[in-house]
Amino acid sequence: MTAKIYLEGGGDSKDLHILCRQGFRQLMESAGFSGRMPRFVSCGGRDAVYDDFKTAHEQSNADYVAMLIDSEDPLDDQERTWDHLRRRDNREQPDGSDDRQVLFMATCMETWIVSDRDTLRQHYGHNLQESALPPLDNLEQRSRQEVQESLKRATRRCQNAYRKGKRSFEVLGKLDPATLETHLAAFRRTKRILNEKLQ
């Protein structure tokens, strides 16, 4: 089984693309995918992810091709991913593709990060202002702006205050998959689909 997952993240920097892949790889290794790891491809922005995914879906000889992206907005239905992309981004579903080829971070990668309070405490130390973080219930229904701003506020007194890029991928790789599964339906779905596909 060969698999490729196209990632949103990394901007235009080669170094950040490497860190992006490393962060997701570490998280998926912790989630039990060692020995059957997909190839992660960091694409930068959302448009680039879609274009690269579409090309790979049409041309790649991989058994499974997917993209892992922010949903940007809360999901009405976790399983109807192409409906969400059609409504929100005006994206056409490539011929022969299906909903299991779109894996969402709902609503953004920071939602995954704020769900794991133990890792945040360990990573940021005593200057973390945990009260600035959103409640854990219904995290995936909160806007990406709310989640991202809360994480910036909670870490603003920390030496390694949260920023997109190198620092975001560092903390991503340390997250506990069991905690993410507890709080995030989109992460549970991603893990379920990858378990089905990565035999």
Automatic annotation (TrEMBL):
Q: Which organism is it from?
A: Methanoculleus palmolei
Q: What is this protein called?
A: DUF4276 family protein
